[in-house]
Design brief:
There is one protein chain. The chain contains eleven helices and eight strands. It has 231 residues and is α/β, with parallel strands linked by helices. It has an eight-stranded parallel beta barrel with strand order 1-2-3-4-5-6-7-8, surrounded by eight helices. Helix 9 links the parallel strand 7 and strand 8.
């Protein structure tokens, strides 16, 4: 069974749009877990545009695994080492982007990444690198000692020709390097099934689509349907 992590960022986006206390992303996380989610993902951005520091602390207090998405900065690494979530997924971050637009440039940033990855691992945190499905990125992730990579599926979700094949090649290479394989970005009910066939895939992290679908069917129903598709 492929694990399903639910990203609750955009529950916080809706809350922050009016400056209210609702909807509460922690309540959304609890409901997702009650309906089959295996863990919770949240991205604490530098500009705090959706998830806030207190949200992360409350999500960490839940009994389920927290996948803390974060930019590779001293501030975020220090916070992660203090909170000690189950996992940290290191992602690229630009203030002007609407959402994460691609994988982390682990090749170009290898030297600066190395001490941060080491510090997180020494704190007992499982490190995941969010990368594009490129051979050199996978080899670099292995060299950095990351136990997990999450392949960026955004280009596939947008229908880029040959992207599914590229993801399959990357999945095979990830297995050869002894790294656990996760994937995510832009996945929906309609496009997720081919991704579930990636060899060695252990986890998908999905957020925006399921939160959007919840407007029409409720969060519990949206999570249950996706969980069924993963089985």
């Amino acid at each position: 069974m492929i694990r399903l992590g639910i990203n609750v960022d955009h529950v916080a986006t809706l809350r922050n749009a009016r400056g209210e206390r609702y909807p509460d992303p922690v309540r959304a996380a609890e409901l997702a877990l009650e309906n089959g989610a295996d863990g919770i993902t949240a991205h604490l951005r530098e500009d705090r545009r959706h998830i806030r520091d207190e949200d992360i602390r409350r999500l960490r207090a839940l009994s389920a695994p927290l996948n803390f998405e974060m930019a590779v900065t001293d501030e975020m690494v220090t916070m992660a080492c203090t909170l000690k979530p189950h996992a940290c997924c290191l992602v690229p971050e630009r203030r002007e982007e609407l959402t994460t637009e691609g994988g982390l440039d682990v090749v170009g940033l290898r030297e600066s990444l190395a001490p941060h990855v080491s510090r997180l691992l020494e704190a007992g945190i499982r490190v995941s690198l969010f990368i594009d499905p490129e051979p050199e990125a996978i080899r670099t992730a292995a060299a950095l000692g990351a136990p997990v990579v999450e392949l960026h599926t955004g280009a596939y979700a947008l229908g880029k020709e040959g992207e599914l094949e590229r993801l399959h090649r990357a999945a095979h290479m990830t297995a050869e390097c002894g790294i656990e394989l996760h994937a995510g970005h832009g996945l929906t009910y309609e496009n997720v099934s081919p991704i579930t066939e990636l060899p060695g895939l252990k986890e998908l992290n999905i957020g925006h689509f399921l939160i959007s679908e919840a407007v029409f069917v409720g969060l519990g129903a949206s999570v249950r349907r996706m969980k069924d598709l993963l089985s």
